[in-house]
Write a structure and sequence with these properties.
With 322 residues, the protein is α/β, with parallel strands linked by helices. 23% of the residues lie in helices and 25% in strands. The strands form three sheets. A seven-stranded mixed sheet has the order 10-9-8-11-12-14-13. It has a four-stranded antiparallel sheet with strand order 2-3-1-4, covered by helices on one side. The chain has a three-stranded mixed sheet with strand order 5-6-7.
């Protein structure tokens, strides 16, 4: 069977949101193909949302939420953020733009910035796979499903797809390192993405484990990963920072969700009669190093137990005061 070929699109966003396509006076022409620079592997977010760049009603910290929503509606073969979220790269099968609906969506995306197009060479999808490598993180072995398991480590197979979380980003690694220092109990994984933290928690003996994610595409990917691993966490679609959203009570909460949603989450636990009651242990991740002070100040009922950082990204371990 002939393997599909792919076209790479890069939407370089303007500094301010662009008008809707209907306000431009007419449809924009689909751009001619141009060569694109190779993506920086350290800038590969696989759909992550941890940049503190601008207001967003949905708690996902995208530079332009409209653009992300439009890209996901195209059901791309993959997508990622680059340049601190100012460039959105996604892949469609060759010929997809012939469909009138896809062509219209691409024209609308072109009104939000500069849309560059480049046909990938044959075998691109294999090169993408070579980029995703296994990670040994303490007792955990986080791997793409095309790598074999290791008998000496706790195995977690993750197909990220359109969800964030392969174990490759510092914020995810830091969460996985720190949960290994905690006493197992019930765990709540906020911003669960591909489900990797939830799976690690179950492998380490935490139960029950519940993941909450605002992106339904990510929840769908996480459910598939759970089945692949033979694990049974509970995944829910919702905004955990919304005071009206009912959070399950848990001994441990992991929030890998960036500064602004972390600050909104803190509001839920400020009152003495907060429901649910604050967890005994709290991991805050998706933070830049210089955001630690602001994050700590938002949780006066907690004291800092530990922190880990790589010079850029930081995760804080907080314990509830007696």
């Amino acid at each position: 069977m002939k393997r599909p070929q792919y076209t790479r699109y890069a939407l370089r966003l303007t500094a301010a949101p662009s008008p809707a396509a209907g306000d431009t006076g007419g449809p924009a022409a689909c751009p001619d193909p141009v060569a694109l620079p190779a993506a920086d592997p350290m800038d590969d977010w696989s759909g992550a949302a941890a940049y503190d760049l601008g207001p967003d009603a949905q708690a996902l910290e995208y530079t332009d939420g409209r653009a992300v929503e439009a890209i996901l509606a195209l059901q791309p073969a993959g997508w990622q953020e680059e340049d601190g979220g100012l460039t959105l790269v996604f892949w469609l099968e060759d010929g997809a733009a012939v469909d009138p609906g896809v062509a219209a969506a691409l024209r609308d995306l072109g009104t939000l910035g500069r849309l560059e197009v480049h046909r990938e060479p044959p075998g691109w999808e294999d090169a993408w796979r070579r980029f995703h490598k296994p990670h040994v993180i303490g007792r955990l072995y986080v791997r793409p499903p095309w790598y074999p398991a290791r008998a000496d480590l706790l195995d977690i197979a993750v197909e990220a797809g359109l969800a964030f979380g392969t174990g490759g980003h510092a914020s995810t690694r830091q969460c996985l390192e720190l949960i290994q220092t905690l006493t197992p109990g019930s765990l709540l994984d906020l911003g669960s993405g591909s489900g990797v933290v939830s799976f690690a928690a179950l492998r380490l003996g935490f139960a029950p484990v519940t993941g909450i994610e605002i992106d339904p595409v990510a929840v769908h990917a996480a459910a598939g990963n759970a089945a692949m691993n033979g694990l049974e966490p509970t995944f829910l679609v919702g905004d955990a920072t919304d005071p009206a959203y009912p959070l399950p009570e848990a001994d441990v909460v992991v929030a890998n969700i960036a500064l602004r949603p972390i600050l909104r989450l803190a509001e839920r636990w400020k009152s003495a009669d907060a429901e649910p009651s604050p967890p005994a242990e709290l991991l805050l991740s998706g933070l830049l190093v210089d955001q630690a002070g602001e994050a700590l100040a938002a949780f006066p009922a907690f004291t800092e137990t530990a922190r880990t950082d790589d010079g850029t990204w930081m995760t804080l371990h907080l314990s509830r005061r007696a």
